[in-house]
Amino acid sequence: xxxxxxxxxxxxxxxxxxxxxxxxxxxxxxxxxxxxxxxxxxxxxxxxxxxxxxxxxxxxxxxxxxxxxxxxxxxxxxxxxxxxxxxxxxxxxxxxxxxxxxxxxxxxxxxxxxxxxxxxxxxxxxxxxxxxxxxxxxxxxxxxxxxxxxxxxxxxxxxxxxxxxxxxxxxxxxxxxxxxxxxxxxxxxxxxxxxxxxxxxxxxxxxxxxxxxxxxxxxxxxxxxxxxxxxxxxxxxxxxxxxxxxxxxxxxxxxxxxxxxxxxxxxxxxxxxxxxxxxxxxxxx
Length: 285
Known about the structure:
The chain contains nine helices and 14 strands. The chain is of the alpha/beta class. The longest helix is centred in the middle third of the chain and has 25 residues, at 91-115.
């Protein structure tokens, strides 16, 4: 679609108050799962991140990589097993998780950002003991419960204009490596950074009153309203732990949390820099 110069100017003017709101502040973006599979949409997300960085937003990208892990386990003949949505992770599996997350997925995202003109550095939760963890449940193996977050490495990178790209692995003082749920890690990191916002990229458009009707999107939810929505069945299934992470992030000091559909091109920019918005925003009320 062709637009005139006047329309371009109007778009920039509309974005100005939002740019002023976010410039110099920290935005944590959680990216993973099925939202990462499509290369064209991944390209769009990386462009959004670079643009935010260029206008002065301090972006931290926290990623998972469940589909890639499942694919690699399948290649080596290992079956994926889940309990309550969490991958059962024995010692061999955690080595593969480390290889896929800290290696293939992390470095490919760093490369994409740099190809768009951004400055990125990849690290895992093991680097600088960024994410310290302990065993969450013996039945799950090396699935970690976060015990502390050391954000100093992230602050150092942000101060130098880099975009930290964090894979969600944890460690302990005995040298064990843990697979950490990406939603939980992003919420903990955002809280520890006192981020202005946390953006959770998913493969749904937000919280719907009717799951089959996109027009019933709830644009804003106060954390005190969420339990009633769970009781009513509006928030259900796999969305319950995601929403719990959103609420926890608010309690830990994040100003607002968005659930966005990562399949929509430039969803991050539409949500943060326009009047329109896209997904569901959680706020402290």
